[in-house]
Design a protein that fits this description.
The chain has helices at about 10-40, 40-45, 45-75, 85-115, 125-160, 165-175, 185-205, 210-215, 230-245, 255-310, 315-330, 330-340, 345-355. It has about 350 residues and is mostly helical. The radius of gyration is 29 Å and the shape is elongated.
């Protein structure tokens, strides 16, 4: 690996543009969600909102710290980066990966708790705070692991060779497989989160009596040759004419019964249509949440497995940066999936826009 410009100019410009777009969109959307939630104190008292706000705080931190640091790593040549600089970037990647997976897992468990245990919830406010504290502690630990690896590697190298040059240390950081053993913790966390998400959202749809296949099936249209049912207005009109013609005669009991039956049927049909819309919305949102997480984080996880098996190389590191840009895309997908789809948040946002 040469110490000139490690990446081509076109590669640097493309990734930098995407990173800047992700940073602007992610930071603006997450800050908007946090500000609107904080303005409505009654929403912050909810356990689900607290768990969701924790994810938005994480995404805002990623937009402020991790994405700009990745941009600097892409633009600067390798000869200007020392081992500590590269290690800090690797620590940011480790922090983002573990923190995102654990926060998404917490939201998934919270949604299952709402759907399956509506009356007696397991995730109370105290347990939610303890869970979020554990998540931040685990994320901070994942941030420190790359520094521990570098310290152990430098100590081992200093024992073997009494002098180590700075440029060689930088090259060895990119070529030494032993400095990527922290990926052994990131990969199982991602796999565990993905499996729990698939199983949990399937259980959520089962708890709501929603079937994915039948939910998107369109009902066949009725034949035009069928006889049109008598509407309520026509029945009331007939009733009024009978009263006017008969003078003293009262409407028959069967006619009153038919009117009440028609009203009840119309209400039942309306409720059924609303329930179908809610079911389609729930299935669509669940599929979007699962597919977004898997689409953004699966490529870099698979490449991390290849990196551990084959070892780092120029092509793998270049491809890893491209997949990292995809993973950063969750910073602006999360507000769209977890905040803007909530009816309460939509009401608050609409009230602020109208004002």
């Amino acid at each position: 690996m040469e110490l000139g410009n490690l990446y081509p100019i076109s590669f640097q410009i493309t990734l930098t543009v995407f990173l800047m777009i992700e940073c602007l969109l992610g930071l603006s959307s997450n800050l908007t969600v946090l500000v609107l939630y904080c303005m409505k104190l009654n929403l912050v008292s909810s356990v689900s909102i607290i768990v969701t706000m924790n994810l938005h705080i994480l995404d805002a931190l990623v937009c402020v710290g991790c994405i700009p640091f990745t941009t600097v790593v892409i633009l600067l040549p390798l000869k200007d980066n020392n081992a500590l600089f590269s290690c800090f970037h690797e620590a940011c990647i480790s922090f983002t990966s573990v923190a995102t997976a654990t926060n998404v897992l917490a939201i998934t468990l919270d949604r299952y708790d709402i759907s399956a245990r509506t009356a007696n919830r397991v995730l109370t406010m105290g347990r939610a705070v303890a869970l979020l504290g554990f998540i931040w502690a685990l994320s901070f630990l994942s941030f420190l692991v790359p520094f521990i690896e570098v310290a152990f590697f430098n100590q081992e190298v200093s024992v073997q060779n009494q002098t180590v040059e700075v440029d060689n240390t930088t090259i060895q950081y990119y070529t030494e497989p032993g400095l990527y053993y922290h990926l052994l913790a990131q990969i199982p966390i991602f796999c565990f989160t993905s499996i729990i998400m698939l199983v949990t959202y399937y259980k959520i749809l089962q708890a709501l009596n929603i079937h994915i296949v039948t939910c998107f099936q369109t009902t066949p249209k009725k034949r035009t040759s069928e006889k049109k049912p008598i509407s309520m207005t026509e029945t009331l009109a007939c009733e009024s004419t009978d009263i006017q013609s008969g003078g003293r005669t009262n409407p028959p009991l069967a006619m009153c019964t038919s009117v009440s039956v028609i009203i009840a049927l119309r209400r039942a049909v309306k409720r059924h249509k609303e329930r179908r819309k809610q079911q389609k919305r729930a299935v669509r949102t669940s599929l979007l949440i699962i597919s977004t997480f898997l689409l953004c984080w699966t490529p870099i996880t698979l490449l991390n497995i290849i990196l551990l098996c084959v070892g780092p190389s120029n092509f793998i590191m270049r491809l890893r940066l491209g997949f990292l840009v995809m993973a950063y895309g969750t910073t602006f997908f999360h507000p769209l999936l977890y905040a803007f789809t909530r009816p309460k948040f939509q009401k608050v946002l609409k009230s602020k826009i109208d004002f």
